[in-house]
Amino acid sequence: MGLWKNLKYVLSDECNGLLRLLVDHYNRRSDKNEKSIREILVKVQQTLDAQEVLDNNMSDSYQELKNSQESFVKVSEQCDSVLSQCDTIVSQITQIEADSAARGQEIKDLIGEEFEKQKEEMKKSSQMLAARIRDVHMYLEEINAPDPDAPNVNELLARIDVLEKKNAEYENKLAAALKELDEAKQAYDTADQSFQEEKRKVFNLSKKLAQANSKISDLLVRVKDRSLETMLQRDDIQNPFVITENKEKYTITAGNIQVMVTRFANMAVLDRFFESVPDHDPYKKMYGQYQRDIRSTARQFTPRSELEDVLQAFVQVVQEDLIAKMVEAMYRRMRSGNAEFEEKLLSALNQYLEAIGFYCRDGLKVGEVFQEEDLKDMECAKDARAQGREQGEILEIRLYPYYINFIDKYGKRRKMHTKGMMTVAA
After folding, report:
1. In the prediction, which pLDDT does 211 show?
2. How far apart are CA 370 and CA 393, in angstroms?
3. Bridge partners, 399 (sequence order)
4. Residue 104 — φ and ψ, nearest 5°?
5. Hey, how many other C-beta atoms are within 10 angstroms of the C-beta on 266?
6. How many CA atoms lie within 13 A of 422 on its CB side?
7. Cα–Cα distance between 267 and 242 in angstroms, integer?
8. What is the number of other CB atoms lying within 10 angstroms of the CB of residue 202?
9. Which H or E element spans position 122?
């Protein structure tokens, strides 16, 4: 309202000023200021129009202010009502606070009683815990108390240092000793190699000497008499090289290959014989080679293998290791003269071969002429130096053929044999 009032005063002042200016120009009117007078009149008219508008606006504003005052009165009444309600609410809140204070005091009393109980319980628990801690502390003190019988750690460390030094010295000495031992071993291996070489040379010389002695003895026997040939010719039963027990026995079949292998591997009679024989004995070395070859051959087959293949492999080992080496060596030794050891070894060997199932073909006789069928299982060496002998006459049977009977998988009876050796007159 003040704003409109001030604006009215301003317009009135401006209108009064224009009127005064108009009067002043009118009093001093001239042709020049006629235009100014008209302009002033226009401005006065505009000012009056503006004042009228302002009056109208002031009237409208007054009406609005009046309406606003009525609204303000209503709002004031509503505020009074709200304030009255607030007073009521405040009084209720005050009452609630008073009730809450009373209840808070009750709760505080209850909490105080419960706290006192818990405090008492915690005090008892603390006392018990303190007692337990004291007990544990005492127990730890007892445990950590130094043992009067325990050794001094410093002394032990000093002893450990001394022992470590001694151990280092011993290790150095041991390394030096090992080095010397290695050098000695190398020297020994060199010496042993040289010894073995010399031994092989001596053995070869001994073998050649034995062969030479055998040839000399053979010549002497042939010159003086034919006692061995006569003995062998006289009766087959007295011939120590002939086995005849298993001629009609067929104990090896395709169904019992494992039994046959067990028989070949069972060398108990020969093991007992060679127990007291020195390791450097030639016969024992031959026997050791035979053992290794038999075991190696046994590992090559299974119970499902063919009987002929298994038996052929074992017969070949017997041919090469026993007949061609051991039996021939015993034969030459027995021909040369005193051969008690060879006679005992031949007896043990015959027991072993007979237990397996071997026997000798006994249709051969020294002094008889060999037949064509004899060449099937015999190797024949001809001697052109024999004088006064019929061509084809058997001069010597160095090895008899060894036979073994078996029944194949078709049930047919068959035989397998080693090769014999004989000398005939050319």
Report:
1. 64
2. 6
3. 421
4. -60, -35
5. 13
6. 28
7. 20
8. 11
9. helix 34-144
Question: What is 252-279 written as a DSSP string?
Answer: -BTT-HHHHHHHHH--HHHHHHHTTS-T
Nearest residue to 374 (alpha-carbon basis) of 400, 413, 405: 400
d(CA 359, CA 413): 16
Q: Roughly how many angstroms between the first and final C-alpha of the chain, as a whole number?
A: 175
In contact, 233 and 394? CB cutoff 8 Å: no
> What is the pTM assigned to this prediction?
0.46
- Which residue's structure tokens are 């002042």? 13
Single-letter code of the amino acid located at 129: L
State both tokens at 235.
């009766």
- State residue 223's pLDDT score: 44
Report whether 361 contacts 400 (CB < 8 A).
yes
294 is written with which tokens? 């038999």
Separation of alpha carbons 392 and 287, rounded Å: 35
Dump pLDDT digits (tens) for 229-284: 444 444 444 688 899 889 999 989 988 888 899 999 999 999 999 999 999 999 99
303 contact partners, CB below 8 Å, separation of at least 6: 257, 258
Nearest CA to 351 among 382, 375, 322, 320? 322
Of 384, 385, 383, 376, the C-alpha closest to 403 is 376
CA 128/CA 132 separation, integer angstroms: 6
DSSP state of 337: S
All residue ranges of the chain with pLDDT < 70 are 1-16, 18-37, 40, 44, 51, 54-55, 57-58, 60-62, 65, 68, 72, 75, 79, 82, 144-153, 199, 202-238
Q: Using an 8 Å Cβ cutoff, are 358 and 243 in contact?
A: yes
Task: State the Cα–Cα distance between residues 50 and 61, nearest whole angstrom.
Answer: 16
